[in-house]
UniProtKB/TrEMBL annotation, chains A, B:
<dbReference type="InterPro" id="IPR004365">
    <property type="entry name" value="NA-bd_OB_tRNA"/>
</dbReference>
<dbReference type="Pfam" id="PF00152">
    <property type="entry name" value="tRNA-synt_2"/>
</dbReference>
<dbReference type="InterPro" id="IPR045864">
    <property type="entry name" value="aa-tRNA-synth_II/BPL/LPL"/>
</dbReference>
<comment type="similarity">
    <text>Belongs to the class-II aminoacyl-tRNA synthetase family.</text>
</comment>
<dbReference type="GO" id="GO:0005739">
    <property type="term" value="C:mitochondrion"/>
</dbReference>
<dbReference type="InterPro" id="IPR006195">
    <property type="entry name" value="aa-tRNA-synth_II"/>
</dbReference>
<dbReference type="GO" id="GO:0005524">
    <property type="term" value="F:ATP binding"/>
</dbReference>
<keyword id="KW-0547">Nucleotide-binding</keyword>
<feature type="domain" description="Aminoacyl-transfer RNA synthetases class-II family profile">
    <location>
        <begin position="163"/>
        <end position="474"/>
    </location>
</feature>
<keyword id="KW-0648">Protein biosynthesis</keyword>
<keyword id="KW-0067">ATP-binding</keyword>
<dbReference type="InterPro" id="IPR002312">
    <property type="entry name" value="Asp/Asn-tRNA-synth_IIb"/>
</dbReference>
<dbReference type="GO" id="GO:0006421">
    <property type="term" value="P:asparaginyl-tRNA aminoacylation"/>
</dbReference>
<keyword id="KW-0436">Ligase</keyword>
<dbReference type="GO" id="GO:0004816">
    <property type="term" value="F:asparagine-tRNA ligase activity"/>
</dbReference>
<dbReference type="InterPro" id="IPR004522">
    <property type="entry name" value="Asn-tRNA-ligase"/>
</dbReference>
<dbReference type="Pfam" id="PF01336">
    <property type="entry name" value="tRNA_anti-codon"/>
</dbReference>
């Protein structure tokens, strides 16, 4: 009975009075309709039934006899087509407005969509003034433009797709580690360590007048973590396999397309290793399984990037997954660079750090697929890297994974588990006292172990073909920018 | 053949020479034995087969004819019993040392364990000097004692159990949200917002001489997040259900058993809400499903806490799960407090903040189960809480979940989605300009929404019965303490 009343009212008016009556009737009507997400509706749930869908209008097309809407609630890239009689038209039904639609879910006569919602009621929940709204209907806004609007950019197709991919990739990373027997550890964000022994740290102190500047809140200087490695190494003395996945920080004064001041890192540590292969297997396994999961579970969202952002990128990703990643030593890499006819800006002598131009060349040389570089010069690596004890070219058991378009994606090493060697190296750099707790790990039941870290944003750049790292993180932080 | 050689050698000597030969033979022997985790061995995998297990010695019992070890690799609370001939004895086989054992997995004659490993070889991978090692065999060390050793405490039974529970509870939280259609958002750690409008913030600035003190790295003052709520609200304008799970910070000068400077928080935001019940349903659902998951998947680990740390706590947890959580309004809570015969230190007039003593009483009054308190005085709540527009007792649609032993576990509210009301309140407190982006969310397609946060460490305290919050996080940070 109430539904008939509503329908009659809908026909007779779209005035304020109608909206108020409609609202008061809404509660009753809602009782008889099933609330559905757009993705559920598109999958054909409740076909032929009375349903209720809530979301935001992505397009409006009023015609003589009908009004057509596309409603999206973030559950999928595809929106649900809503068809209503012309009497449901409302000047407040604009691009960006929020609506609740009640009606019957039915098969669509159009081949582009499986179903459509034949609307009995369209209620505008929240208005959106098209003149002020910075996104315009049917326009494809550039990534640069939407980046300026961090509070609204999730309302675009491209950024909501990115966020769905990011969420799904996160799930896939956790699930890879869980199914491979790794324990998740929440390594700390605030730390009194300086893992790399290098600068570029953010320091942390309470703000406000309650705290005297002279005394540290923590009694010691405290920093934002640059890596959870040392904390994971603690854990690898009790659990054979551990990982962490969280925010990591660098106070780098850089506006580069590959650097952020705050980024997410996946780090793992494995005990009882025998060689670098124990690490490369996990790195490759994680890359493969996460990518396959994302391609399978976010086909539409990934497709948007591969179609509109970097056309042709899908072929590149498929090529990456085709065969196992090649492994070359640093020494072989140097030979390859020296044999090439390329004119490099930076030197390529044995002992030099590999620069972006070198990494790019090596990846191309290996067939534009991810490539492992192993056994770097001992002197290039931090104190914890395991000494290979070779000569005359003295190397450490370290490994990087370079990927097309991005460069360094992962970095790892076996860790020096031999107390005497580690102690000597720490003494050399005058850090023996600060790291006495770290030496303890080698004093008590030390085991050969190693680990690696992967920049999660770079991973997303790599598989989606996104040029700028700022476009793959919800709220990018970099020098001179901390919006919201 | 090699195995015979090894056995002969094992019988003849336990000298350094033996160990060196043994090591070189190890590679060959490893080829023929399957590497197993302790948990897999205990589950009876590869029964009757030649296997290899790596881990740390939790007990050593040399007898006349045999040596008995318990080896643990962190995959379960229970260790694997290893039985070897007396000839496998080695002075380096001490509590805490790391070993690799090869042998045959067989049914155990003892009822306490399903299987045991009949050792052919025991190789000490890493020594552990029992005199220096701060944990002693067969001693049950107090939580206070092991807390002083953050780099080693994961090697105790109790703390490795805690870490397994924590990892599993994390998995359960993610899985609850995923299966309920929530998208995971990585909200930022560094922010230029001050969500609560209150102090107790950590400020972030680069350390070192490269950066001039006068100019902010981010061009604006930047802080560690106290809540991802506002960032989630951004997302709730495009996705109907979002959540975040990560580190959160308070520069509270507190040594309390319930506070940390860095803690983990689960936060969720839900669009198209109709009432607070839309939030309490999710809060209760998450609590229930996570707890049931942990009880089912970490029975041994949880059992250790319920048996040795807080005897009898299991009954309390079971009682919590028995029926739905009671809901009372703040006004009802005040009535209950005023009707009680208890002598409270703090006032209980309508409008007062509920203190720990009040929360404790209310939880007891409701039967020592989790209890929701709703509709707090409007003036007690931050600017974003939704105005109930009631009088004379003016309230906001806010809700807290109080739990036995811990007090406030969750806090949430419906958010003020009505532009005019929100704008007026922000104008009142002079924050209209700073939060103009937040007002934008109400200008463009605003929807009724709400959310909540749960302190993850407090949750673990609640289900395990752990008194001090420092004992449920891998590396606790609080005033005057930032170890490692």
């Amino acid at each position: 009975m109430f539904q008939t009343v509503t329908k009659t009212l809908l026909v007779s008016s779209s005035s304020l009075v109608y909206r108020s009556i409609c609202q008061s009737l809404r509660h009753y009507c809602n009782q008889s309709s099933t609330k559905l997400r757009v993705s559920e509706a598109l999958a054909g749930a409740e076909l032929g039934k009375n349903v209720r869908v809530q979301g935001w209008v992505r397009s409006v097309r009023p015609q003589k006899k009908n009004i057509f809407l596309h409603v999206n609630d973030g559950s999928s890239l595809q929106s649900l087509q809503v068809v209503g009689g012309a009497e449901l038209s409302d000047p407040l039904l604009t691009f960006g407005s929020a609506v609740e639609v009640t009606g019957t879910l039915r098969k669509s006569p159009h081949p582009q969509q499986p179903v459509e919602l034949g609307a009995d009621q369209i209620h505008v929940v929240g208005e959106c003034n098209s003149v002020d709204f910075p996104f315009k209907i049917k326009e494809r806004h550039s990534l640069e433009y939407i980046r300026q609007l961090p509070h609204l950019r999730c309302r675009t197709n491209v950024f909501s797709s990115l966020l769905r991919v990011r969420s799904e990739a996160t799930t896939a990373v956790h699930s890879y580690f869980k199914s491979n027997g790794f324990l998740q550890i929440h390594t700390p964000t605030i730390t009194s360590n300086d893992c790399e022994g290098a600068g570029e740290l953010f320091q942390v102190e309470p703000s406000g007048p309650d705290f005297e500047e002279e005394v540290n809140f923590f009694s010691v200087p405290a920093f934002l973590t640059v890596s959870g490695q040392l904390h994971l190494e603690v854990m690898s003395g009790s659990f054979s396999r551990v990982y962490t996945f969280g925010p990591t920080f660098r106070a780098e004064n850089s506006q580069s397309r590959r650097h952020l001041a705050e980024f997410f890192m996946v780090e793992a540590e494995i005990s009882f290793t025998q060689s670098l292969e124990d690490l490369t297997k996990v790195m490759e396994g994680m890359f493969r399984s996460t990518t396959e999961h994302v391609l399978a579970h976010c086909a539409d969202d990934v497709g948007l990037f591969h179609k509109h952002v970097t056309p042709g990128h899908r072929d590149r990703v498929d090529a990456m997954l085709k065969q196992s990643f090649p492994v070359i030593t640093y020494s072989e890499a140097i030979d390859i660079l020296n044999r090439s006819s390329e004119n490099f800006t930076f030197p390529t002598d044995w002992g030099c750090d590999l620069k972006t131009e070198h990494e790019k060349y090596l990846v191309k040389h290996c067939g534009d697929v991810p490539v492992f570089i192993t056994d770097y010069p001992y002197d290039l690596k931090p104190f914890y890297a395991r000494d290979n004890q070779d000569q005359p070219k003295h190397t450490a058991a370290a490994v990087d994974l370079l990927v097309p378009g991005v460069g360094e994606l992962c970095g790892g090493s076996l860790r020096e588990e031999r107390l005497s060697l580690l102690k000597a190296r720490l003494e050399d750099v005058g850090l023996e006292e600060i790291y006495s707790w770290y030496l303890d790990l080698r004093r008590f039941g030390s085991v050969p172990h190693g680990g690696f870290g992967m920049g999660f944003e770079r991973y997303l750049q790599c598989i989606l073909g996104v040029n700028n790292i700022k476009d793959v993180i919800p709220f990018p932080r970099f020098s001179h920018s901390c919006l919201l």
